[in-house]
Specification:
alpha/beta, 7 strands, 27% helix, globular, disordered N terminus
Length: 201
C-alpha cells in the first residue's frame, strides 16, 4: 500500500554543530497541487526549506524548480534552500549498484544479480544537471534515499550549518489550521556520535 502526504505533519529534530545546537521544527507539506494554496502559511517564517524531487521523474524536478522560485520570491529573504534529490536507492548509479558483468559466477549469484537489476529504475534527472541548477540558483544540493537513510543526516547537517548564527526563530502558526496534523516527535533520544557535527537521525 502506498502512502501519500495529504496534509502537513510536523516533527522535531535536533542537530548539534561544533558551536551550537539547532532545533528544527520540520513541516512536511503536501506536494499535491490541490494543497498548493496552503503552502505559504508553512514557509512564510521558515528559516530553511528542503525542496525534494524524485530523481527518477523529470517532471518532479521541474516542479521543484517552481517551488524554488516561489520560495525565493515570497519566503523570508534569508531562507536557506536545499535542493534534495530523493530515491537514489532506485537508480543504477555506479556508486549504488554493483552487479557482476563478467558472466561468471554460480546460479545463486546470477539470481541475486537478476533481482537487483529488476529493481533498478532509470534515472531521469542527472546529478550533474541538478547540481548545476543548484549552483546557479544559490541552493544547497544533496541526493538522498528516504528508504535507506543515505544522505539524510548530511542534508540536515548542511542546512543547519548554513542557518545564520543570529537567526531568530519565529513562532509557527500553521498548527492552528484545521488542515494541519501536528505530530511532534523528539528524536534527541537517539545516540549522538561524540565529537562530530550531525543531527540525531
Amino acid at each position: 500500500m502506498k502512502s501519500f502526504t495529504l496534509d502537513a505533519n510536523a516533527v522535531q529534530q535536533r542537530c548539534r554543530l561544533e558551536d551550537r545546537l539547532i532545533k528544527f521544527e520540520i513541516w512536511d507539506t503536501a506536494g499535491q497541487e490541490r494543497f498548493h494554496s496552503l503552502a505559504p502559511m508553512y514557509y512564510r517564517n521558515a528559516q530553511a526549506s528542503a525542496v525534494v524531487y524524485d530523481v527518477t521523474k523529470a517532471a518532479s524536478f521541474e516542479k521543484a524548480k517552481s517551488w524554488v522560485k516561489e520560495l525565493q520570491r515570497q519566503a523570508n529573504p534569508d531562507i536557506v534552500i536545499a535542493l534534495v534529490g530523493n530515491k537514489i536507492d532506485l537508480v543504477a548509479d555506479d556508486a549504488h549498484t554493483a552487479v557482476d558483468e563478467s558472466g561468471e559466477g554460480d546460479d545463486e549469484d546470477d539470481e541475486e544479480n537478476d533481482s537487483a537489476k529488476s529493481m533498478i529504475v532509470k534515472r531521469e534527472v542527472p546529478k550533474s544537471e541538478a547540481q548545476n541548477y543548484a549552483d546557479e540558483a544559490g541552493l544547497l544540493f544533496i541526493e538522498t534515499s528516504a528508504k535507506t537513510g543515505e544522505g539524510v543526516l548530511e542534508a540536515f547537517t548542511e542546512i543547519a550549518k548554513h542557518i545564520p548564527v543570529d537567526a531568530k526563530p519565529k513562532h509557527h502558526q500553521a498548527a492552528s489550521s484545521g488542515n494541519a496534523r501536528t505530530e511532534l516527535v523528539d528524536l534527541q533520544r537517539r545516540t549522538n556520535v561524540p565529537g562530530r557535527d550531525g543531527c540525531s537521525c
